[in-house]
Records
---
Amino acid sequence: MASITRSPARTVPAFTLFHPRNPRRVSRRFLGIPSAFLLDDYLPRYQLLTSVESSKKRSLAYAHLRECNLCPRKCGINRYETTGMCLIGAKTAKVNVIAPHRGEEPCIQGHHGSGSVFFSGCNLRCVFCQNHVGFILFHFSIICLTLFIQDIAHQRNGFDLTPQELAEWYIKLQQIGRVHNINLVTPEHVVPQVALSILDARDMGLRIPIIYNTSSFDSKDSLQLLDGLVDIYLPDFKVWKSSTSKRLLKAEDYTVTAMESITEMHRQVGDLSFTSDGIAKKGVLLRHLVMPGKEDEGMEIMRWLGENVSKDLYVHIMEQYHPDAHVGKKRRVARRVRFVDASGDESLQEEVRYAEINRAIRDEELSSVKEAAVKAGLWRFCEPHEGQFHL
Ligand code: SF4
């Protein structure tokens, strides 16, 4: 049975193109959704698994937990007895927030929000982590589970939930929150628990797409376990140079791993496709956060994506970088260093950590990455601040 059906192109709201000579200027074209990206209907991939395939996935999930090499850290430990670099064991996943979320791309959040599950812990150690401080609200209701301000990425803060309890939350998000999808945020280190939770939720009546929202520091094994369970991959491609990933992500092999992971994700689900209401149902939505002084790396990433993944890849070039986590914090033993501001005035200031990325990005840095994307042949871009669906 096919999971998707396609129909001829039809008239829908505009999609967005960056102007080739001025990427901040947006060209609007009122075209139909190309039939290759339009779905009449959609049945999530996990609904298509046979009972034999589901049982195999369950066995594989347990096996991975007994000797965990599920991410490129390759700790090789039994997570029923100890924890590896991600700090998370086997029986539960640690969760910081579960809630309908309206901070995602329009085609993901739709009208009712994306049913987001923010996992605690992470297998990267980004010094600029944009999730370093969690959420300001404390809230516990029938469809929200939220902790007070916490570092959700680098510490073991959060609620311990079994796969079955996670599945019950997915059902609440679907039935009461009426969300468009289940959005698993930073789940690389809890893929077995996530796989089991999706299978449990399927048996409980889940029928909305699953999003795997990842840093792309995934292993082939974990992506194989997810094949057939995930509908939309939402990978970041953060930096290009291994010297940068070593310094800023604490993972020298990040770029090679991200290239392999994104290629495999695209092999599984293809380019992003929508139903006629403008909601994404299947495919890859790639994010790149432009970093201060790293626009050359963003440009390389765009070139690689256009040449090696797909020119029809749906790309969100993000501009919301802000210094966070360890960036801009005082050193324990601080020296005073010469500082030149934008107007050329010099002063002596106390040295801070990761000073090279301790600022917002500049317009020209953003423009360079967008121009490189257009030059690479990419054309499907997300412009969320325009406040409507982009196809
Ligand atoms: S998922 Fe955690 S325990 Fe497993 S290899 Fe990665 S860091 Fe180590």
Note: Residues 68-71, 73-75, 77, 79, 84-86, 123, 189 surround iron/sulfur cluster (CB under 6 Å).
---
Amino acid sequence: MTVQELPGAAADYRPTPPPAWQPRTDPAPLLPDPEPLRVLGTDAAASADSGLLLRLYAQLVRGRRYNTQATALTKQGRLAVYPSSTGQEACEIAAAMVLEEHDWLFPSYRDTLAAVARGLDPVEALTLLRGDWHTGYDPREHRIAPLCTPLATQLPHAVGLAHAARLRGDDVVALAMVGDGGTSEGDFHEALNFAAVWQAPVVFLVQNNGFAISVPLAKQTAAPSLAHKAVGYGMPGRLVDGNDAAAVHQVLGEAVERARRGGGPTLVEAVTYRVDAHTNADDATRYRGEQEVEVWRAHDPIMLLERELTARGLLDEESRRTATEEAEAMAADLRERMNADPVLDPMDLFAHVYTEQTGQLREQAAQLRAELDAAAEAEGEAR
Ligand SMILES: Cc1ncc(C[n+]2csc(CCOP(=O)(O)OP(=O)(O)O)c2C)c(N)n1
Ligand SMILES: [Mg+2]
């Protein structure tokens, strides 16, 4: 294609150079470190609190078991779909643990573990994924927004809530979770911009697990790292090893404290890996090799913690067994309760959608009501 030049353009155009442009703030302190922060297996681990490491360990073991149990339930037809976070447990658990009870968590569909670690009933956390109805839990009870399926839409919600809380003088930090793919959504950019302009008390946690379904990170972005995106909005970007539970806990803890003190938002990129397929409905062998997965298995979050705890003499056979038994008890309870058929009213589908029902939804509700009544009548006549 040839670009047509306007007559007289280029050659005659000799503008006065504009005044030198200066950055309004120094970008250097906002830049992420070149390497993700690691604690486990480094000198920094010596100063990590042993009680915290043991709590993280118990929760990670429990989280892994939750993932395998929920995946098994999909195979048994008890759960429609489950996006496993196996391999990402350190991010999930640390995110829940750095928050106070009065803070808010804004999870994505993959973040069931974070919601459960924050106190949500393990069965209620699966209501949506079972296809029962809507969110399935009361978001206000534990201050956990709905597990969000539309990518990144939870982020502007988190910013709005955090900003509103600050205007009211409430001590609330919002932690919003999103995937690497979600960073390409407009909502991600709008949320970051508003958060930085308003200095809202928000922490954005990007779990870079390498893929958005089959799309690898290299096809998602050309940025030096996802954490670098923070700089363009005027907030600090932090890069952390997402499989190192102590490091994720430290970085998120610092970001939450900063937000609480009025220091504004932070973007944290946790570099991790989705070991399982996108969901039970996906076949990951079609877009990645087993070798790649093996490399990440050798950097497993539970294994990294076990190594550290064992080296420090904090984890013996008995405490390991206790953690496993507790996780098994949780899985058994989850199995039992998920195997009971839920009592559902299909009309609930129309409740809690809008304060004032739209005309279209009213029509659909009437249609469903008529179908249900006809079915009940036919069943009555057949008896
Ligand atoms: C707005 C929107 N577009 C597309 C989809 C379909 N979709 C569901 S998950 C997914 C990939 C998201 O990848 P990522 O953000 O990296 O999260 P991950 O699944 O890896 O946790 C896509 C494209 C969606 N849910 N919402
Ligand atoms: Mg991803």
Note: The two ends are 75 Å apart (CA to CA).
---
Amino acid sequence: MDDTLLLVHTEADGSLAKIAREALGAARSLGGSLTIGLVGGDAQAAAGSLGGCGAARFLGASGEMFRQPRYATDAAAAEALCRASGAQLILAPATSRWARVLPGVALRLGGRVDTHATRVFPSEGAPAIARWYYRQRMEAVLLRPQRPWIVLLEAGCHPAWTGAPASAALENVPVDLPEGAIRTTVNGLRAPQAEEQTIRPEADLLFVAGAGWTKKQSDGATHADDAERLILEFLRRTQASLGGSKSLVDLSGEGQAVLRCMTHLNQVGQTGATPRHPKGLSTCCHGEEPHVVGWRFIGERRAVNLDPNCGWARGKADVLYIADAFEVLRRINALLGEKTQATRA
Ligand SMILES: Cc1cc2nc3c(=O)[nH]c(=O)nc-3n(C[C@H](O)[C@H](O)[C@H](O)COP(=O)(O)OP(=O)(O)OC[C@H]3O[C@@H](n4cnc5c(N)ncnc54)[C@H](O)[C@@H]3O)c2cc1C
């Protein structure tokens, strides 16, 4: 197996994100010699948190100028760590910080880069990766003869390493920073406007709301206020992550907001997101292919729809309840409320 460098960076609070620990889990599963390269304000503290992982070396680009994401400093630090490690395979979590920088680093090193990898594994003594194409419809396995090979591993694809912290001897790697490298500073973060944070990548359940919530119901009227109240109560009680069909999020964009907490970032599907959750529950959504293709990485799928001929009935869901989602959610919320009261008593 190739010698591997795991390249991670610290978060704003100095910790390492779960996705970094997942990439570490994947790197360890490869066998072969492992070096960890850390970039951040205090790489020594971060190295200690991974101290028990069995890496042969810990290399660091540490200091105030590496605390914030910045192309010039991140690229220089990553390049220096890659060169110092001499590794042929460089594995990194697919954070936005690394996704922006590492393709450029591959060019500087005369190597190659692959993004959106979902697996990395040994194949006849060499590393191989898997990734999906055509919006998760086809999976390919890739091998490359060129080295160094940088691979960005997606979140939620490998169990995170959960070992205990231990002392780690960090070797500080000098980084040659070009003039003007720290001209850019991050002044703040701007998040999309939403009354409530509803996208929870770590949640066990993805709850999807479709346009049916806005349609005329059996009494000939629409019940958007009811829909919003029921859905928000369900989300609060379960801490599920909220997804939407394109039809529903487009309605929000047109100013007919049904769910004020729903933005285009919630859209699941071909032109939306492909989130990873163990379970998914779709409600009032037809289950058309461009939507369901975003469910590729949902473990167990259930749907509630009035129409027994909806798309979910055609092998796209494990369980389809032919039922009125308003009634179903009302009942589930009541049961969840009883459960909370019983826990308190
Ligand atoms: C190029 C392209 C890309 C696309 N990308 C995406 C994408 O990324 N994501 C996406 O979602 N779509 C995408 N679409 C659109 C997609 O094809 C569908 O139009 C969309 O998913 C339909 O949304 P919906 O199922 O919520 O709405 P509808 O098709 O209107 O379905 C509403 C459903 O609600 C049910 N319903 C109504 N009332 C109730 C009730 N009380 N209880 C239970 N069920 C009820 C109805 O039976 C119906 O099945 C794309 C389309 C194209 C052409």
Note: The pocket of flavin-adenine dinucleotide is lined by residues 210-212, 215, 217, 245-248, 267-272, 284-286, 288, 290-291, 294, 304-307, 310, 324-326 (CB under 6 Å).
